[in-house]
Design goal:
Shape: globular
Subcellular location: Cell projection, Cilium; Endoplasmic reticulum lumen
CATH topology of the domain at 418-596: Methylamine Dehydrogenase, Chain H
Number of strands: 61
Oligomer: single chain
Largest sheet: 4 strands, antiparallel
Low-confidence stretches: 68-86, 766-783, 898-903, 1064-1083
Main location: other
Structural class: alpha+beta
CATH class of the domain at 418-596: Mainly Beta
CATH superfamily of the domain at 418-596: YVTN repeat-like/Quinoprotein amine dehydrogenase
Distance between the termini: 58 Å
Pfam families: Beta-prop_IFT80_2nd, EF-hand_5, EF-hand_7, TPR_IFT80_172, WD40
GO molecular function, one term: calcium ion binding
Strand content: 25-35%
CATH architecture of the domain at 418-596: 7 Propeller
Helix content: 25-40%
Strand order of the largest sheet: 1-28-27-26
Keywords: Calcium, Cell projection, Chaperone, Cilium, Endoplasmic reticulum, Glycoprotein, Metal-binding, Repeat, Signal, WD repeat
Length: 1083
């Protein structure tokens, strides 16, 4: 890779060029000492005058604020090549002033900023402000309109150069032989170090790598990190280094000196060097890159303008080799077939990548897709300009411009345009380290909050294409990588945080991602293209994780399947170039080094992907290698291959795991305990807890949490279900006693305090109950729980520790009648008709039912159940069959007495028989009037549903609140305290019940922590949430049916588990099948 240069000598300039800058990828603006502003074209090297500066204004620096305009003097015109142009031009002067010009070439601001010459004037990366640095030793920050914000640096010595950090939170400047980094946060510490033996003449701060490059009078250039650690020091040149600049994408570095131009890698080593011996240029000043990182421009001490563009960039992939031979030409070679093709383009090449048998080339206006087998017939995508990033995957490739991210197939079809909150403003800040394309997933690190990764699913019709899941890290993330191989269930994502710790998580485990730490002091990572093997680079070594995904939950397995190798023989500043198949490519100081991973392990991964367990077992028996056995053990454990896991763990000498597997095999097959222990074996702790909880194995779940030392969760479960609270507290005491520590958990302390004072609290509650008899409402139309709250839909799902599957069936069918008719059909017919319903559940028709789709279906079923219940009751109450119910009919049917003389005849209702019945009738009358929306004194079928199930309708909630306060609020203060909450039930229960009720009162209902329930807090107590019930039912069904743990149910998984969804009997789906379009309307 090298520069091809062109020197403009025969220009019409009368004075030398002082400063210059790119306004877009085609145009350069320069200022000369005659106060003129010129625009140059990089295509034909012609110039035109566009503005004149004030008399006596000699420019010392120039910088564009890039926006959607075009350029000075051409308002409203589109930028050449469709590129974004400059909006505001900042020019600094030798008299201490700076001016801001708009795109119409008019001076908007003329500000006196310093007492001496301004040496640097730069817009901030976000365009919100600017900095100026002068020879007076002062650095100031100004608003975009030229108003002074702050003076951040005041020194006695002269400042030579200053630059913003990539995120505009700090700045770097050089003063004498020193370089200093000044954070802009209040009370932050200045980092300063001696960089060169002589004066530091120039510096640059990379946008992507955060490295700082400096050049000085000692004829050397150096690379530093932000803490002042030296990363690279060049050999001394013949003359001083006068200019240095990182390209916008951070991969390259341009160095200028006397008659010298050097192209370097960002770590410092040199790609090429140009010596201008025949065409003397003098020293190069103000080297600037174009926004697409393919061209440079520089002024020279002889007054010439130098242009340069990159050629001979080379990429290799398997049998293909490609190299750029010109601005519009690429030579593609097939090394195996020994063929060569020259590809000519009508426009300048700005970005290109090679991989997976395809060459993707982005020019100014088009994207060309070449298949290695059809080189002469490329697929062309029009309208894509300013492409900054091209990333290739096995099925798709990514294009990133300044506005959006585009995912295409290799046939040229747009597959996805992913968006997330704030994406429009963050797209210009994306780089290759914060975006990654996997087999079926896309991961993008958020720029505004760098602890978040957005994960998009690329499978056709997947819901996460529009609503991505988010991964949250505790520390800022610097690099994210998604694996490039495997089945949809075996997709993994790794990321490196600011502490250089490496974490891994399963891509399809969202939205609750479980992250595992598998490495430390990792600088960069890369997945193999053909297997789920990961390589990571350290400072002086590299590590290979042969089974990072399946083994991540077990530190022992990770240790057995990870190998670390020394890289001292490669040299310093090593970079990871490629990981193709079994070959890893490193680069150090320009030299390429290739190493291979263990071939048997690569074969084992491919056998695992194809589910060829017998062949995998034979391979391990043949090789007799601990690495292979440990890898097979992790893979087999994930797929529940217990027999193979046992042999593999035994061969890798993991005796404790062999014993544990024998214990799992002793449990009843497919029992909740068996599934939970198997999840624990694979490190899925959260999943094991969910299985136990949703199968109502409460004591087992509490003991499981105690085994895992999850004390707060154990206490939460015990308090919620009112059991084993004393066991949790006792085990906690033993744990602290063994560690000789005091209890420091506030919640645990509070529960222990409540346990100690239970006698006193019961006495108070009994005394309160003596003064007021606590009553509960039980009507013939509304089922209420013991404390007066409406019964939730799943009230009879679990009773007496026994699971009743009727609720599951009704939640899927939406009808009690249909659930009772199961025995009319054979199991085969049940499966056949269930398949019809599954298609309707799968709203996006992607072949899977995810949690959102199943929850929507269950909520629809709840609505159908309420309507069915109301319909049956309506027929009973509508005594005259006129399709409406009057208050008299309701009184007669509900509170009238049966005739003793004639069976089936109700006597007329006359008056309440006691005080309790009078209160019930009063409550029902209020509810009746509220449900009578048209105020005609009678209820039709739709109004009757609101009367029968008022808790299902928001407009009925005020009446429920009014009746609850009348019944519970004994002191009539408009709110409910704890004594009113428990009423006279306290005297009939033990201390555990009282502790549970106190915790429920404070944690679940008293949201504002004022010691009382009022308004919505009371409603959250007495009105059950169908949304929560539906979510619990979804979790229960997933725990029972999601055998492959991919957090979605395939159609076949649901049909295979038909006894869970619709029962083991046959069922009648006639109503659904005859009116199948009814489901589309409701969903």
């Amino acid at each position: 890779m090298k520069f091809k240069t062109y020197i403009c000598k025969d220009s019409k300039l009368k004075e030398a060029i002082a400063t210059l800058g790119w306004s877009n990828n085609e145009d350069i603006y320069s200022c000369s000492e005659d106060q003129q502003v010129y625009k140059w074209s990089s295509t034909n090297r012609e110039m035109v005058q566009v503005a004149k500066l004030p008399d006596g204004f000699v420019s010392t620096d120039l910088h564009w604020l890039i926006g959607k305009g075009s350029g000075l003097g051409t308002p409203g015109a589109s930028a050449p090549g469709g590129s974004k142009g400059g909006e505001s031009l900042l020019i600094a002067g030798a008299d201490g002033r700076f001016v801001i010009l708009n795109k119409s070439a008019r001076i908007e601001r003329n500000v006196l900023a310093h007492t001496g010459p301004i040496v640097t004037a730069r817009w901030s990366p976000d365009g919100a402000g600017l900095l100026t640095a002068g020879e007076d030793g002062i650095i100031k920050i100004w608003s975009r309109s030229g108003m002074l914000r702050s003076t951040v640096v005041q020194n006695e010595g002269q400042i030579r150069c200053a630059r913003w950090s990539p995120n505009a939170t700090a700045l770097v400047y050089c003063q004498g032989p020193f370089v200093a980094v000044k954070p802009l946060a209040a009370n932050s510490k200045l980092t300063k170090w001696r960089a060169h033996d002589g004066l530091v003449l120039c510096l640059s701060w990379s946008n992507n790598t955060s490295m700082i490059g400096t050049g000085g009078e000692d004829c050397r250039y150096k690379i530093w990190d932000t803490l002042g650690t030296n990363i690279y020091t060049s050999v001394a040149d013949d003359y001083a280094i006068t200019s240095i600049d990182f390209c916008p994408d951070g991969e390259l570095l341009a160095i200028g000196g006397f008659n010298m131009l050097k192209l370097c890698h960002y770590t410092g080593w040199s790609h090429s060097i140009v010596r201008f011996n025949q065409q003397v240029t003098g020293s190069l000043f103000n080297i600037v890159w174009s926004a697409d990182s393919t061209q440079i421009a520089s002024s020279t001490s002889t007054g010439s303008l130098l242009f340069g563009h990159i050629i001979e960039r080379e990429l290799r992939n398997r049998n293909l080799k490609a190299i750029t031979t010109g601005r519009k030409t690429i030579q593609l070679q097939d090394i195996v077939a020994r063929t060569s093709d020259t590809l000519d383009f009508s426009e300048r090449i700005i970005k290109w990548e090679l991989g997976y048998g395809h060459l993707v080339v982005a020019t100014v206006h088009q994207v060309h897709i070449f298949n290695e087998h059809y080189i002469n017939t490329p697929i062309i995508i029009d309208g894509r300009s300013d492409i900054r990033i091209i990333m290739l995957g096995k099925k798709h490739f990514i294009l990133v411009d300044y506005n959006s991210v585009w995912i295409y197939t290799y046939t040229g079809r747009l597959h996805l345009n992913p968006r997330f909150p704030g994406s429009q403003a963050q797209i210009p800040h994306l780089n290759g380290r914060c975006i990654s394309l996997g087999m079926d997933s896309l991961a993008i690190r958020d720029h505004s909050d760098q602890t978040i990764i957005h994960v998009f699913d690329l499978l056709p019709g997947a819901t996460r294409q529009e609503e991505p899941y988010s991964i949250h890290s505790k520390s800022p993330i610097v690099e994210v990588t998604v694996c490039r191989f495997g089945n949809p269930d075996d997709q993994y994502l790794v990321f490196i945080d600011a502490n250089q710790d490496l974490y891994i998580t399963s891509v399809h485990s969202g939205p609750e991602y479980v992250m595992h730490k598998i490495g430390t002091q990792v600088t960069t990572t890369m997945w193999s293209s053909d297997t789920n093997i990961l390589v990571g680079l350290h400072d002086l070594s590299y590590s290979v994780w042969y089974c990072p995904g399946e083994a991540c939950g077990d530190p022992t397995l990770i240790a057995l399947t990870t190998f670390t190798y020394d890289t001292s023989e490669f040299g310093k500043n090593i970079t990871l170039e490629n990981f193709e198949g079994a070959n890893i490519t490193f680069r150090s100081s320009g030299a390429i080094f290739t190493v291979s991973v263990k071939t048997y392990c690569v074969i084992l991964h491919k056998l695992f992907a194809e589910n060829q367990w017998e062949r995998a077992l034979k391979l391990c028996r043949l090789a007799q290698n601990h690495l292979l056995w440990a890898t097979l053990a992790a893979m087999a454990s994930k797929r529940n291959q217990l027999e193979i896991s046992e042999e593999a763990f035994s061969a890798s000498l993991q005796i404790d795991k062999v014993n544990y597997l024998n214990y799992i095999k002793s449990l009843p097959l497919s029992s909740p305990e068996h599934m939970a222990e198997n999840s624990i074996m694979n490190g899925r702790i959260q999943e094991a807890e969910i299985i136990l909880m949703h199968n109502k194995r409460i004591p087992e779940a509490i003991r499981f949490c105690l085994r895992m030392h999850r004390w707060n969760k154990a206490l939460e479960v015990a308090l919620k279900h009112g059991t084993d609270v004393e066991l949790v507290l006792e085990e906690r005491r033993k744990f602290l006693q063994a560690l000789e520590r005091e209890e420091n958990d506030p919640h645990m302390n509070r529960v222990m305090w409540l346990s100690a004072l239970w006698v006193l609290l019961i006495a108070v509650c009994v005394q309160c109950a003596a003064t007021h008899k606590h009553t509960h409402t039980h009507t013939a139309t509304k089922e209420r729980t013991e404390d007066g709250a409406y019964a939730p839909r799943d009230a009879h799902h679990m009773e007496g520790g026994e699971h009743f599957s009727e609720f599951d069936h009704e939640a899927i069918l939406g009808s009690v009648k249909e659930a009772e008719e199961f025995d009319n059909l054979s199991p085969e017919e049940s499966k056949k008709r269930l398949a019809v319903l599954v298609i309707k559940m799968d709203q996006n028709s992607d072949g899977y039912v995810d949690r959102h789709e199943l929850k929507a279906w269950i909520l629809r079923s709840f609505k159908s159940l309420a309507e069915e219940e109301a319909s049956e009751r309506f027929e009973d109450v509508d005594l005259n069959s006129d399709e409406s119910v009057t208050w008299e009919e309701y009184l007669q049917e509900t509170y009238g007495m049966d005739s003793e003389d004639e069976e089936g005849v109700r006597l007329p209702f006359e008056e309440p028989r006691n005080e309790d019945e009078r209160k019930l009738i009063q409550d029902d009358k209020e509810m009746f009037d509220a449900a009578d929306t048209n105020q005609d004194g009678k209820l039709d079928s739709s109004e009757f549903v609101q009367f029968i199930s008022p808790e299902e309708f928001p407009q009925m909630l005020p009446i429920i609140l009014q009746q609850t306060l009348r019944d519970k609020d004994t002191n009539k203060d408009g709110r409910i305290d704890f004594q009113e909450f428990v009423g006279d039930n306290a005297k009939d229960h033990d201390k555990e019940w009282l502790i549970v009720e106190m915790d429920k009162f404070k944690e679940d209902f008293d949201k504002n922590n004022d010691g009382f329930l009022s308004g919505n807090e009371i409603l959250s107590w007495v009105v059950p949430s169908n949304d929560e019930v539906a979510s619990d039912e979804v979790s229960h069904l997933f725990a029972s049916s999601d055998d492959d743990h991919d957090d979605r149910l395939s159609h076949q998984e649901i049909i295979d588990k038909y006894d869970i969804f619709v029962g083991s009997e046959a069922t009648d789906y006639g109503d659904h099948l005859q009116n199948i379009h009814h489901f589309d309307d409701e969903l």
